[in-house]
């Protein structure tokens, strides 16, 4: 399995960012890390190994990006600055990572995927930019970071503004009415996966219900137990990516 390491200074973020790329071709996958995790964690957790056959066969090419969650959602900055840093991260993905992928890989299709907070990142960016993403897979994710849950706080301490609204799928999805945006979302292959005992189960049900309300087809899979660990994600990527 081909493996390549890349690093460059990001103008969007004002810091160096790193990426691991697995595979020689196939549909590119932007794989977002879990909460405050890094670009190398999916390799260390053997989640990449679980996709080895698909990668070696040229079915997919996986781009493991880094995160800035500790500088955004999980920072001590005031809430408006937390969401502003997240928006800078999205700009990094849109204006730096995707153009980098297009140089490496000429396939038109593009997949966003992630586990836990990475699943939030994948779904949020794919739903906001369906003209870029043809498929999205969110595993064990939370789609409203403003909602306090057992063991999980409101990441904005009760603060709410337009930037937060447009970056929380459970808030903005029910309000989507633009015909062009809806048409693009209805063409996307959308998969949500969550464990039956996961704290985020109702969060996922809410998003699924919201997609149904705006007639956006999607697959919603509920696994047994919590299913919020690398050993489950290793099985999920085999099935859904």
Task: Describe the fold and architecture.
The chain has 241 residues and is of the alpha/beta class. The chain has one domain (3-240): Alpha/Beta hydrolase fold, catalytic domain (Rossmann fold), CATH 3.40.50.1820. Helices cover 38% and strands 21% of the residues. The protein contains 10 helices and 8 strands. It has an 8-stranded mixed sheet with strand order 1-2-4-3-5-6-7-8, with helices on both faces. The longest helix is centred in the middle third of the chain and has 26 residues, at 79-104.
Task: Report the span from N to C terminus.
Answer: 17 Å
Instruction: Quote the CATH topology.
Output: Rossmann fold
Please give the oligomerization state of what you see: single chain
Look at the helices and sheets and give the structural class.
Answer: alpha/beta
Q: How are the strands of the biggest sheet laid out side by side?
A: 1-2-4-3-5-6-7-8
In CATH's first tier, which class applies?
A: Alpha Beta
Mean pLDDT: 97
Helical stretch tally: 10
Roughly what fraction of the amino acids lie in strands?
Answer: 15-25%
Number of domains: 1
Largest sheet: 8 strands, mixed
The second-level CATH architecture is 3-Layer(aba) Sandwich
């Amino acid at each position: 399995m081909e493996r390549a390491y890349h690093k460059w200074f990001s103008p969007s973020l004002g810091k160096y960012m790193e990426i691991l790329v697995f595979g020689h071709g196939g549909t590119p996958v932007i794989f977002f890390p879990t909460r405050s995790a890094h670009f190398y964690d999916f390799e260390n957790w053997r989640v990449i190994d679980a996709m080895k056959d698909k990668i070696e066969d040229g079915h997919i090419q996986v781009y493991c990006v880094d995160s800035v969650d500790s500088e955004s959602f999980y920072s001590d900055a005031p809430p408006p600055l937390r969401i502003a840093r997240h928006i800078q991260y999205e700009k990094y993905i849109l204006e730096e990572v995707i153009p980098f992928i297009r140089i490496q890989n000429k396939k038109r299709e593009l997949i966003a995927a992630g586990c836990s907070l990475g699943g939030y990142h994948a779904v949020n960016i794919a739903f906001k930019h369906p003209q870029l993403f043809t498929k999205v897979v969110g595993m064990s994710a939370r789609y409203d970071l403003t909602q306090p849950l057992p063991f999980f706080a409101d990441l904005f301490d009760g603060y709410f503004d337009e930037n937060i609204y447009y970056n929380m799928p459970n808030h903005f999805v029910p309000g989507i009415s633009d015909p062009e945006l809806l048409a693009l979302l209805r063409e996307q292959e959308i998969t949500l996966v969550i464990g039956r005992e996961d704290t985020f189960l109702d969060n996922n049900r809410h998003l699924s219900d919201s997609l149904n309300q705006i007639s956006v087809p999607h697959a919603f899979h509920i696994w047994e137990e919590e299913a919020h660990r690398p050993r489950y994600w290793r099985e999920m990527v085999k099935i859904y990516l």
